[in-house]
């Protein structure tokens, strides 16, 4: 029984980690106007989410989306 509980706990931790990294944002630095992709929603005023605040499920989707956001295309 103890072995089962340890295995179940390990599986739960790994599953949680896989789901934790499922959001990407395109943000713009307010001073440099440079756009980047981040995996956490900004909590500071030095970066803002651009592109109508769209959340992307993969980094690749965020990279593609960044190309279509007007303030990022220079």
Account of the protein in words:
By secondary structure, the protein is α+β, with helices and mostly antiparallel strands. It has one domain (22-74). The chain is 39% helix and 16% strand. The protein contains two helices and three strands, in the order αβββα. The chain has helices at 2-20, 59-68; strands at residues 25-29, 35-38, 47-49. The protein has a three-stranded antiparallel β-sheet. A hairpin with a 5-residue loop joins strand 1 (25-29) and strand 2 (35-38). It is globular, with a radius of gyration of 17 Å. Residues 1-20 form the signal peptide. It comes from Bradyrhizobium algeriense. This is DUF1344 domain-containing protein. Keywords: Signal.
**Structural class from helices and strands?**
alpha+beta
What is the H-and-E element order? HEEEH
Runs in which pLDDT lies below 50 for 5 or more consecutive residues are none
Query: Largest sheet, if any?
Result: 3 strands, antiparallel
Please state how the strands of the largest beta sheet are arranged side by side.
2-1-3
Overall body shape: globular
Average pLDDT score: 82
Estimate the strand proportion: 15-25%
Q: What Rg do the Cα atoms give?
A: 17 Å
Helical amount:
25-40%
Number of domain modules: 1
Number of helices: 2
Number of distinct beta strands:
3
How far do the termini sit from each other? 60 Å
Structure at a glance:
With 74 residues, this protein is an alpha+beta fold. It has two helices and three strands, in the order αβββα.
